[in-house]
Amino acid sequence: MNNGFPQKTTGGIKRRDFLRMAAGTAVATISGVITPLVIKVAHGKGKLEPFTFAYISDAHLYAGNPNHRFVKAIKKAVADVNSLNPQPDFVFFGGDLAQLGQPDELELGKGILSDVKAKIHMMVGEHDWYFDMGRKWREFFGKDVYSFDHKGVHFVVLNSVIVKDYWTAPNMTPMERMKAMAQLDNPKGEAFTVGEEQRKWLKNDLSKISKDTPLIIFSHSPLYKYYRPWNFWTDDAEQVQEILFPFEKVTVIHGHTHQTVTNKIKNITFHGLLSTAWPWPYPPQGIPKLTIQMDRADPFNQFDGCGDGRVDILSSGEVNKTYNFWDRNPMEVTFERVSKETGSETPGPSY
Amino acid sequence: MNKNYWLIISILVLVVFTFAIFISKAAQFEKEGNLLTVKSCDGKKTIFVEGFKEGEKMSKEKAQVVANLLMDLIKICNQEVIAKLKEDNSVIVLNDASLILPDLKPGKTPVLLAHGGQPHTKKEIKLFESEEKRMIDEGYKVFHDSSLGTNGISCDMCHPDASNTHAETYPKFQTQLKKVATLREMINWCIENPLEGAKLKHDDPKMIALETYITSTRKGKVLEPGKH
Ligand SMILES: [Fe+2]
Ligand SMILES: [Fe+2]
Hints:
Chain A has helices spanning about 15-25, 70-80, 105-115, 125-130, 135-140, 175-180, 195-205, 235-245, 335-340; strands spanning about 40, 50-55, 90-95, 120, 145-150, 155, 215-220, 250-255, 260-265, 270, 305-315, 320-325, 330-335. By secondary structure, chain A is of the alpha/beta class. Helix content of chain B is about 40%, strand content about 10%.
């Protein structure tokens, strides 16, 4: 089934050692070459201290069964990031911790993530939000929109899953509202937005930042228009991008798409994150040309096409992003490859 | 006047009225701009020839086209066909037969989309379509319903819009099943594994519904059994 490019083992080196090696090594990469589990940020005029953070995303937890396959999966990711040596500066969670926004799902996730040794930064996804409009999530994890600075990079976490009110008029219960949102292929699904209020906030937040400071923006939905029927989409993406264009180095990292996906619009580079729970097929159209597509997953292997990853920030402020597949070779998308803006040379899925 | 008299009058009126409708229906076709009308010898096929008025003589070429068209029509069905042969020799079917003669062209034998030489009635076609749609809709529901399994997961979570289900590639060899598997076996595999549910009998209405929905999303795709 998967005789496309990502093969299973990395000749001779055990995966865990491989991760360790990679995390400790400065990255020299040939474009499109597959390397290990980190998103590397920062690279500019060689003035930053390079650092690494790891990510876990889209766990989609159900409560009630400690042996549920999705529970096993997020625990695997926690073990992964805890085994990184040296440890990443922090771990970022990309949203969709819960499947149906239930308090016990969020609580389960909070408990599992509390085992992460490094500091953790959280982002909200639509599956966390639409049962109680983020009440429980904020109680557990704090603000859904915030920014912080780390080693010369300015990080912003957005809540990009805001949609028009579709529930009041038809008198939906919280669960009906949640389920309508949880259905990816819902033909009546409202488009995600960042919204005017947050765009204002963002403008203000960035007004204190010099234009040569590397920016890393986290959003759950891709901050561009990819595929509307599945809400791989942010409706006011252009307006948000407009706020980011004046900055020299901008990287957007998003969850929600459960697949390898890379895009570049002007000076903004966009990276997707893997899900721990399940991979998504590519939609029939709209796939950004820089994307190295992952092959179709093996339905006989729960972990195939899933994983976690890391981001390496180089001294220049540029970012190398790594998808750490659990049962395939990792895939590194280097800033060099992205800056060449060449289309994918590797074959996509078999069809 | 007595009651019987009234009854006879009303029946008479009704008969005349029905007849008038019948005549006007026929006249509707006849009216095609006073065109030259050619009928087959059995009287069941009528062709209005554009570019020629009633009574006018056709060119030899045109006469040949008309003759061929009539022959074709007689060969393929014994239904009544009323058609117009346009100046550019394209053909428009004017009556109900257009349902079964969608690509009628002179020089090209028309395809008859009917069984046993008899066309499907509009009613039949409606029934086929509505029954198919009912099953697709039912399948859509099952596909989006987590109660098919035991762990809260539903098919659409991994296959939005039934993507990557590839009905047109079945039956095909599945390495892990060690045999050529049918679509229904693969559906059952996904029920038992990602959904941790109990597999369905192959003739279970839910199975048929799932198959109908999944397959409907690949309508028009080339059949490629065995493709990976
Ligand atoms: Fe997700
Ligand atoms: Fe999401």
